[in-house]
Design a protein that fits this description.
By secondary structure, the chain is of the alpha/beta class. Helix content is 26%, strand content 26%. Strand 9 and strand 10 form a beta hairpin.
Length: 221
Protein backbone atom coordinates (compact mmCIF):
# COMPACT_ATOMS: atom_id res chain seq x y z
CA UNK A 1 0.00 0.00 0.00
CA UNK A 2 0.98 3.62 -0.45
CA UNK A 3 0.55 5.51 2.82
CA UNK A 4 0.93 9.20 3.58
CA UNK A 5 1.61 10.21 7.19
CA UNK A 6 0.91 13.82 8.16
CA UNK A 7 3.11 14.68 11.11
CA UNK A 8 6.74 13.60 11.23
CA UNK A 9 7.19 13.73 14.99
CA UNK A 10 8.16 10.73 17.06
CA UNK A 11 4.74 9.14 16.58
CA UNK A 12 4.69 9.63 12.81
CA UNK A 13 8.24 8.37 12.40
CA UNK A 14 7.55 5.29 14.52
CA UNK A 15 4.47 4.45 12.46
CA UNK A 16 6.45 4.96 9.25
CA UNK A 17 9.19 2.61 10.41
CA UNK A 18 6.71 -0.15 11.22
CA UNK A 19 4.87 0.24 7.91
CA UNK A 20 8.08 0.23 5.90
CA UNK A 21 9.18 -2.94 7.70
CA UNK A 22 5.90 -4.50 6.58
CA UNK A 23 6.62 -3.71 2.94
CA UNK A 24 4.51 -0.58 2.41
CA UNK A 25 5.46 2.66 0.65
CA UNK A 26 5.43 5.63 3.02
CA UNK A 27 5.64 9.39 2.62
CA UNK A 28 6.05 11.64 5.67
CA UNK A 29 4.87 15.23 5.46
CA UNK A 30 5.50 18.02 7.97
CA UNK A 31 5.73 21.81 7.78
CA UNK A 32 8.41 22.07 10.49
CA UNK A 33 11.93 21.83 9.01
CA UNK A 34 13.26 20.45 12.31
CA UNK A 35 10.89 17.46 11.94
CA UNK A 36 12.41 16.44 8.59
CA UNK A 37 14.88 13.91 9.93
CA UNK A 38 15.50 11.83 6.83
CA UNK A 39 18.21 9.75 8.49
CA UNK A 40 15.73 8.51 11.14
CA UNK A 41 13.54 6.83 8.51
CA UNK A 42 15.77 6.70 5.43
CA UNK A 43 13.53 4.43 3.39
CA UNK A 44 10.57 6.81 3.56
CA UNK A 45 9.82 9.66 1.20
CA UNK A 46 9.80 13.08 2.85
CA UNK A 47 7.96 16.31 2.06
CA UNK A 48 8.42 19.67 3.78
CA UNK A 49 4.96 21.20 3.44
CA UNK A 50 1.77 22.12 5.28
CA UNK A 51 -0.52 19.09 5.21
CA UNK A 52 -3.54 21.37 5.70
CA UNK A 53 -2.98 22.92 2.27
CA UNK A 54 -4.62 21.38 -0.80
CA UNK A 55 -1.52 22.09 -2.89
CA UNK A 56 0.66 20.21 -0.40
CA UNK A 57 -1.60 17.18 -0.44
CA UNK A 58 -1.61 17.22 -4.23
CA UNK A 59 2.20 17.27 -4.19
CA UNK A 60 2.13 14.36 -1.75
CA UNK A 61 0.12 12.38 -4.29
CA UNK A 62 -3.01 11.73 -2.24
CA UNK A 63 -4.92 10.86 -5.40
CA UNK A 64 -2.85 7.65 -5.59
CA UNK A 65 -2.82 7.03 -1.84
CA UNK A 66 -4.42 4.03 -0.11
CA UNK A 67 -4.27 5.30 3.47
CA UNK A 68 -3.70 8.66 5.14
CA UNK A 69 -2.52 8.76 8.74
CA UNK A 70 -3.04 12.10 10.50
CA UNK A 71 -0.46 11.73 13.27
CA UNK A 72 0.41 15.28 14.27
CA UNK A 73 0.29 16.54 17.85
CA UNK A 74 -2.48 19.00 16.97
CA UNK A 75 -6.05 17.68 16.87
CA UNK A 76 -7.19 20.53 14.59
CA UNK A 77 -4.55 19.60 12.03
CA UNK A 78 -5.48 15.93 12.19
CA UNK A 79 -9.16 16.71 11.60
CA UNK A 80 -8.45 19.01 8.64
CA UNK A 81 -6.07 16.50 7.04
CA UNK A 82 -8.61 13.69 7.41
CA UNK A 83 -11.43 15.80 5.96
CA UNK A 84 -9.38 16.95 2.97
CA UNK A 85 -8.08 13.43 2.32
CA UNK A 86 -11.58 12.00 2.26
CA UNK A 87 -13.55 14.78 0.54
CA UNK A 88 -11.00 16.16 -1.92
CA UNK A 89 -9.11 13.01 -2.82
CA UNK A 90 -11.42 10.13 -1.87
CA UNK A 91 -8.70 8.34 0.07
CA UNK A 92 -10.12 4.90 0.95
CA UNK A 93 -8.92 4.86 4.56
CA UNK A 94 -8.07 7.60 7.05
CA UNK A 95 -6.60 7.05 10.50
CA UNK A 96 -6.38 10.01 12.88
CA UNK A 97 -4.53 10.48 16.15
CA UNK A 98 -6.54 11.99 19.01
CA UNK A 99 -4.29 13.94 21.36
CA UNK A 100 -6.91 15.36 23.73
CA UNK A 101 -9.62 12.88 24.83
CA UNK A 102 -12.10 15.77 25.12
CA UNK A 103 -11.92 16.15 21.33
CA UNK A 104 -12.61 12.50 20.60
CA UNK A 105 -16.28 13.10 19.78
CA UNK A 106 -15.29 15.13 16.70
CA UNK A 107 -13.21 12.36 15.14
CA UNK A 108 -15.99 10.73 13.14
CA UNK A 109 -17.27 10.29 9.60
CA UNK A 110 -18.38 13.92 9.41
CA UNK A 111 -14.72 14.93 9.59
CA UNK A 112 -13.58 12.16 7.24
CA UNK A 113 -12.13 9.96 9.98
CA UNK A 114 -12.47 6.21 9.49
CA UNK A 115 -10.46 5.18 12.56
CA UNK A 116 -9.62 7.41 15.52
CA UNK A 117 -6.79 6.36 17.79
CA UNK A 118 -6.77 8.02 21.20
CA UNK A 119 -3.51 7.26 22.98
CA UNK A 120 -4.83 8.18 26.46
CA UNK A 121 -7.95 6.07 25.97
CA UNK A 122 -5.95 3.16 24.55
CA UNK A 123 -3.49 3.23 27.43
CA UNK A 124 -6.35 3.33 29.93
CA UNK A 125 -8.02 0.39 28.21
CA UNK A 126 -4.81 -1.62 28.23
CA UNK A 127 -4.31 -0.94 31.94
CA UNK A 128 -7.88 -2.02 32.67
CA UNK A 129 -7.49 -5.07 30.44
CA UNK A 130 -4.39 -6.09 32.33
CA UNK A 131 -5.94 -5.93 35.80
CA UNK A 132 -9.67 -6.54 35.29
CA UNK A 133 -11.38 -9.93 35.39
CA UNK A 134 -15.05 -10.04 34.49
CA UNK A 135 -15.27 -6.41 33.37
CA UNK A 136 -16.01 -5.53 29.76
CA UNK A 137 -13.21 -3.21 28.58
CA UNK A 138 -13.63 -1.10 25.45
CA UNK A 139 -10.37 -1.11 23.47
CA UNK A 140 -11.33 1.21 20.60
CA UNK A 141 -14.15 2.35 18.33
CA UNK A 142 -14.48 1.98 14.55
CA UNK A 143 -15.75 5.45 13.69
CA UNK A 144 -17.50 4.61 10.40
CA UNK A 145 -19.64 1.82 11.85
CA UNK A 146 -19.61 2.92 15.51
CA UNK A 147 -18.81 -0.69 16.40
CA UNK A 148 -16.41 -1.29 19.29
CA UNK A 149 -13.65 -3.77 19.98
CA UNK A 150 -14.10 -4.94 23.56
CA UNK A 151 -12.33 -7.43 25.82
CA UNK A 152 -13.39 -9.48 28.81
CA UNK A 153 -11.40 -11.98 30.88
CA UNK A 154 -13.71 -14.79 31.97
CA UNK A 155 -13.95 -15.27 35.74
CA UNK A 156 -14.02 -18.82 37.06
CA UNK A 157 -17.71 -18.52 37.99
CA UNK A 158 -18.82 -17.25 34.56
CA UNK A 159 -21.99 -19.05 33.38
CA UNK A 160 -20.43 -19.79 29.97
CA UNK A 161 -17.30 -21.55 31.30
CA UNK A 162 -17.34 -25.09 29.89
CA UNK A 163 -19.73 -24.13 27.09
CA UNK A 164 -18.92 -24.44 23.38
CA UNK A 165 -18.86 -21.19 21.43
CA UNK A 166 -21.50 -22.43 19.01
CA UNK A 167 -23.94 -23.20 21.84
CA UNK A 168 -23.93 -19.65 23.23
CA UNK A 169 -26.69 -17.24 22.25
CA UNK A 170 -24.56 -14.17 21.63
CA UNK A 171 -26.15 -10.70 21.67
CA UNK A 172 -27.22 -9.16 18.39
CA UNK A 173 -24.44 -7.65 16.23
CA UNK A 174 -21.74 -9.26 18.37
CA UNK A 175 -18.87 -11.34 16.98
CA UNK A 176 -16.28 -13.26 19.00
CA UNK A 177 -13.07 -12.61 17.03
CA UNK A 178 -10.38 -14.14 19.25
CA UNK A 179 -9.74 -16.18 22.37
CA UNK A 180 -6.41 -15.59 24.13
CA UNK A 181 -5.52 -18.56 26.33
CA UNK A 182 -2.16 -19.07 28.07
CA UNK A 183 -0.76 -16.13 26.08
CA UNK A 184 -1.66 -17.76 22.76
CA UNK A 185 -4.34 -16.44 20.39
CA UNK A 186 -7.01 -18.84 19.14
CA UNK A 187 -9.27 -18.23 16.14
CA UNK A 188 -12.56 -19.36 17.67
CA UNK A 189 -14.69 -22.04 16.05
CA UNK A 190 -18.15 -23.14 17.17
CA UNK A 191 -16.57 -26.26 18.73
CA UNK A 192 -14.13 -24.43 21.02
CA UNK A 193 -15.02 -24.62 24.71
CA UNK A 194 -14.58 -21.51 26.85
CA UNK A 195 -12.37 -21.80 29.91
CA UNK A 196 -11.86 -19.71 33.05
CA UNK A 197 -9.38 -16.86 32.50
CA UNK A 198 -9.84 -16.89 28.73
CA UNK A 199 -9.43 -13.39 27.31
CA UNK A 200 -12.25 -12.89 24.83
CA UNK A 201 -12.08 -10.25 22.11
CA UNK A 202 -15.32 -9.09 20.50
CA UNK A 203 -16.55 -6.69 17.86
CA UNK A 204 -19.93 -5.41 19.01
CA UNK A 205 -22.19 -2.36 19.05
CA UNK A 206 -22.70 -0.10 22.07
CA UNK A 207 -26.31 -1.17 22.62
CA UNK A 208 -25.24 -4.82 22.98
CA UNK A 209 -22.45 -4.28 25.49
CA UNK A 210 -24.60 -4.50 28.60
CA UNK A 211 -26.21 -7.73 27.35
CA UNK A 212 -22.75 -9.15 26.62
CA UNK A 213 -21.53 -8.19 30.09
CA UNK A 214 -24.58 -9.82 31.68
CA UNK A 215 -24.07 -12.99 29.64
CA UNK A 216 -20.39 -13.42 30.46
CA UNK A 217 -20.10 -12.02 33.97
CA UNK A 218 -23.47 -11.16 35.53
CA UNK A 219 -21.88 -10.54 38.94
CA UNK A 220 -20.26 -7.40 37.51
CA UNK A 221 -23.52 -5.87 36.27
Amino acid sequence: MRIVIAGAGSVGRSIAGELLANGHQVLLIDRDPSAIRVSSVPDAQWLLADACEISSLAEAGLAECDVVVAASGDDKVNLVVSLLAKTEYGVPRTVARVNNPRNEWMFDEAWGVDVAVSTPRLMTALVEEAVSIGDLVRIFTFQQSQANMVELTLPSDAPVVGTMVGDIDWPEDTVLVAIIRSDRPIAPSRHDTLEANDELMFITVPESEETLQRLLSPAKV
